[in-house]
Amino acid sequence: MKRSVLLVTTIVSVGTLLTGCVESGRESGAAASGGQPCPFAVDESVTTTARIAFQDIPNGDLLVKDSGILESCLPNADITWSKFASGGDVVQAFGSGSADLGLLGSSPATKALSAPLNIDMQVLWIHDVIGAAESLVVRDPAVTSVEQLAGKTIATPFASTAHYSLLAALDKAGVAGKVTLVNLAPDATAAAWQSGEIDGAWIWEPTLSQLTDGHVLTTSRETADAGVPTFDLAGATSSFIAENPEFVKVWTRAQDWAVEQLQTDPDEAAVALAVQLGISPDQVRPQLDGLEYLRAQQQASPDYLGGKLANNLQSTAQFLLGQGEIKAVSPPEAYQAGVYVDAAAEAATK
Fold first, then answer.
1. Which of 237, 279, 205, 184 shows the shortest CA–CA distance to 57?
2. What are the two backbone dihedrals, phi and then psi, of residue 225, each rounded to the nearest 5 degrees?
């Protein structure tokens, strides 16, 4: 992707941690009553202290949190869940040593693995392949093509997967540099939309559904089909993975269980996710169709963790370099080393 010249007005930093949200994973839904029974063998030997960073995204991670199965499967582990506003915040938490494992998009993950951050972390799971759940919404009904965005103001969290998709779409339409981009966190995006400060936003759920008086112009599914896929990933510090292999194995099996629920009974999964998101199941259910969920066997294949994901991270690094978000693209070996496939591969055999 060629470098785009952006007119940037930063209103609110993406790096905003939602404070006061550290939870045990047993405060709502099934988790409130002690959690669902472990769907496989309980491991009482694991005494790991794990600080998990989560986001309000309707995927298996939130289902694991709501169900409490991680706590049920690892009854002697000390597990806390902290809510973050974006993957950029999770990267900061990795860098400061305040989180061990967490959800972040493919763009923040790439930033973490590149200069100047060079955080010693690894991607160990793909929570979802992003589709229509991350889209560009515009207010003006007369705007029916990306080309017509010239002169408009569009919000997106910088260095996010949404930012990556937005720049790819603008570049393809030939209007990169003709659109004013504003760096806004998801909650600030909704506020700016309501106040009329922005003409559109490329954002993810649940904020996407809050922009009710606009219309979807294009989606991350369309940019993925054009060769620019994005993902919600799970990353962990390399030291945490190395020091807690049994915890990582059980965590991965719990995530695979959650994906199975999403694939086989999405209506029931929507009920649990609705508790976590604070909306109705009817609002959650369409969001699930905007994301693709992968079982462990598929994740461990050469198309994903087992091969192509490292190449995708390197391509994303080229994008981030062009936007001045990183200082250099790391060697291919760095992105290959930044993907940990062993736990998914083992979960696929269970």
1. 205
2. -65, -25
pLDDT band at residue 323 under the 50/70/90 scheme: confident
On whether the CB atoms of residues 83 and 54 are closer than 8 A, the answer is: yes
Say which amino acid occupies 35: G
Asked if pLDDT for residue 17 goes beyond 60, the answer is no
Is the preceding peptide bond at 116 cis, omega within 30 degrees of 0?
yes
Pairing of strands 78-83, 49-54: parallel
Q: Please check whether residue 235 is in contact with residue 101, taking contact to mean a CB–CB distance below 8 angstroms.
A: yes
Give residue 320's pLDDT.
85
d(CA 130, CA 230): 6
Residues in the chain: 350
Answer yes or no: are the C-beta atoms of 42 and 217 closer than 8 Å: no
Phi first, then psi: give them for residue 53, nearest 5 degrees. Answer: -95, 120
pLDDT value of residue 205? 79
Q: Walk me through the domains of the chain, giving residue ranges and CATH numbers.
A: 7-12+132-225 (3.40.190.10), 22-130+231-347 (3.40.190.10)
Cα–Cα distance measured from residue 51 to residue 24, given in angstroms and rounded to the nearest whole number = 10
d(CA 229, CA 303): 12
Can you tell me the distance from the alpha carbon of 136 to that of 148, in angstroms, rounded to the nearest whole number? 13
Going by the DSSP 8-state scheme, the letter that residue 328 receives in this structure is: B
How many CB atoms are located within 10 Å of the residue 210 CB? 18
Output b/e per residue, 165-174; b: 16+ Cβ within 10 A: bbbbbbbbbe
Give the whole-angstrom CA distance, residue 314 versus residue 332.
7
Which pair of structure tokens corresponds to residue 252? 């991965």
For the CA atoms of 189, 193, 198, 202, what is the dihedral angle to 10 degrees? Answer: 50
Share of the chain above pLDDT 70, in %: 90
Predicted TM-score (pTM) of the model is 0.82
| Residue whose entry in the numeric block shows the structure tokens 């991270």 | 313
Distance (Å, whole) CA 63 – CA 40: 16
User: CA 108: distance to chain centroid?
Assistant: 9
